[in-house]
Amino acid sequence: MNTKPSGNTLAFFLVALLTSAVFPLVSFAVGQMTEPIVIADALRGQKISDKITLINSENEKKNFQIKAEGAIKDWATFYQLNDPTKLISEVEVAPAFYHSIGVDFNVPSDVPNGIYKGTIDVIFSPEKSMSDRTATVNTSVSRPVSITVSDKEVVDVQASIVAISYTVKSGAPAQIRVTYDNNSNIAIKPSVQLKIANANFNAIFPYPDNMEAVKAGEHKEMPLIEWQTAGQSLGDYLAEVSILVNGQTVKTEKITFRIQNTGIAGMADISKIGGNDLTNTIMIGALIFAVLILVAVFILKRKKMAGI
Known about the structure:
Layout: H1 7-22, E1 30-32, E2 37-42, E3 47-56, E4 62-70, E5 76-80, E6 83-87, E7 90-93, E8 97-106, E9 114-124, E10 139-149, E11 157-163, E12 167-169, E13 173-182, E14 191-196, E15 201-205, E16 219-221, E17 225-228, E18 235-245, E19 248-260, H2 278-305
Helix pairs in contact: 1-2
């Protein structure tokens, strides 16, 4: 018996497999990302932050109600990411858009150690046909939440250290972007140590006094770290950037850059690409899907020519 897969089978398998990888977002047509929120080693009295992404791929705006249920029902507060003081319980999302909001889990100061489970529920009214406008049945999409409360203090910080440009115009500042993901169960205020050996420069940039600490579970981008190149010789420089938490180094990154008479951007700022429009995601996915179709057709032709 010939056990080799046919050209049709290979093509179908390729397209089906890669389509599921390219379009995972489409399965969330309306609702929210449902990956569970799991928080370990939370401390009593602690505030833990996370993000909720609401999705509307339909052609009309949607109004979403947000609430918490279960053991963490009274722990959660929701707010606009650009204004944490603005608490919300519902959000309107434009057609073919996604919108992210913040959630704080405020662990009670008197709660016993243990695992506390619940859900974040997003409630919306599904689109109805013209023949069915009499009754409204709301739909709910839930995201599981599990919070383990303990007495153990854990410090776990992930830092991204990126040069804004690897070539700097003489007299302009060399700039470095630092972003934190605080996986600790405490708030932190990291410092940044910058060493440039061939310029005999060594300085510590403390955490800004006018900024709130990086809360547990929070992703935060910091003000740019700058080193003035005025008076420095043209040529290559090696910068060593270290992140310090409570005086302990948690990450060190080495960056090479050049001072020259003209500055050229060394990298694109990909954080500015895209935005909140689901259309961009779908268009990119459609382009990749078209390439996959061409690959499948090519496989079929090769199999046919080979007489398989």
